[in-house]
Amino acid sequence: MRRATRNDRDRVVKVLQKAFNDNPTMLFITRGFNKDKHIAKVMQYAFDFAIRRKGVYVTQNGKGVAIYFRFDERKKDMLDFYYQLRLAITALPILRLQQIWRHNRMVNKLRANKCQFLYVWFIGVDPDEHPRTSPTAFKRKIFESAKKQQLDIYAETTRRELKIGYERLGFEVYKKWHNSKNGLNVWFLKKPFASHTLAMAKNH
């Protein structure tokens, strides 16, 4: 995998839009009509936010994408808030804005209360790619980053199959929340690296 540049924006957005086409969170936070267009808007926002934090990666064939970054890499500024406003105006359902805000606020509240960790936001592969990119390609890159920086990895998902996929990569569920208002389950996952590194050091 390589770090993406701004020239990769359209490629990254297309891959993630296709990969998250039926994702429960995407269906909840985007407008019901022109679904593909509005999910693409979310992915444009994710790219614009993460590229400023050096957090967008693509596989060599351009068919796989990972967005992850150090959570405290950069504080939000006016440009980030502009991106959020643009997203709200162009893709989010007006009548559900309050529900979306409450959902995101709760996810942020329940996420581990530590300022330094690697946050995996999106991992996606073009569903039309044959053969499919192996999860090992993402695992290797993300785990190498975590080991190098001695940071734990955190992620969330609303899809059970993705939760299982994370667990196969060594993640563990440290919290689960059911949004009864909107019928969404959110699994909070972590893969320890910092604590493991410290424990190993103490034992030698």
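[next item in queue]
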Amino acid sequence: MYTSQQKFRFSISSLTLVMLFCLNTFVNGQNSVKGLVLNMENESPVSDATVYINGTTKGTSTDSNGLFELKDVSYPCQLMVRQVGYELQVLNLDNPKKDKLTIFLKLKSIQLSEVKITGLDRRAINVELFNTFFLGTDEWGKKAKLMNDSVLVFNNDNDTLKLEKDSNRLKLGKKYQIETNDSSNRFKIYTVLSVSAKAPLIIDLPSLGYKLYVDLVSFYLLRNKVNSISEYLGYYYLIPYDSVSKRMERQYKKNRLDAYYESRDHFCLMFYRNELRQNGYLLIEYNTEHSTDSTDSTVSTDFYRRRFVDINELITYKDEDQVKIIGQKGKTLYIYDFYNYTNKPIDLTNSKKFDFSSVAGFWQDHYEFKKNPTSLHFLSDTCIIRSNGSIPDNNIMFGGRLSRKKAGATIPTDYQPGN
């Protein structure tokens, strides 16, 4: 079993959960949302149902009459309603609602069951694998603790999974598909672990001062001898610790800022705002060129030519909710991040310090930053980054440093540095 995250070439993650965040927490005003939660079959009130805004710290419970109210809600967003024994309800709210919402919950008809391998108790191994790929193996993931791993349901697929020639899509039966960035014309064989949950995951984040609650929709882990790919979907909200000392509150603020910087969320938000270089991110494209030795026409050499990428070249459409990147399917760019010794991003637009007239000259002057880049790979002809830094549809894959922060480094989508 792999224990070092550096051994994994690519990892798709959405806890971010990347694809299902609130759509925009920056441009609209604050409002309240009120509602009534009812049983769909008999229209009786559902008490003690959890109601929250996906990706935030805003959550509450219904009272004995099924009523709830959430204050200071930013629109648009996703309103989540869940209760044990009922199916999770997701409401996309684009604008404030003057009237009280009426929300019907449907009883679950199918109970989750675990597929066990005869003669081999793999649960402990599966829990460890899940923690590795879901919580992460960085400092945040190692300190995070899943409090209720008993709710996890594992399905082990003993069959092999092949990535066929000229394809970058892995098919998990009829249920699910995962994109990869592997363009080599070889057969790839993966083993599959899928995970679901009988109840919300409860995760303690002691370094960040949060309890994280995750409604896990799906989790897949594909592995072979070379690399591993994980993909997971879910909804979540966070509850800050109560009654902390001023010293601990200062420490939490510092840790949250450290977790936020050098993360996918931060990069994508700065991408949307067109402020990558101001926040220490540099995009590089490597093009393979072919040359012939002038002294021997039979000798040729392939080499890489680097160039700086202006994101205005990539953005095809932008509005207050999202940017669209069109026609870049299959392309890979590389992200270099520039941070100082206090883990703050360095403003690369400082013309006195950074000269972008020559790639070679730039790296000669700043060679200490030329290490461990993050790969940015576009999996679709249309890729979207939303105004809060979320990525719907998992059409952008990160590999390398930015991919290593997972659920253990979760920060609310409406987080602002300094808060």
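[queue empty]
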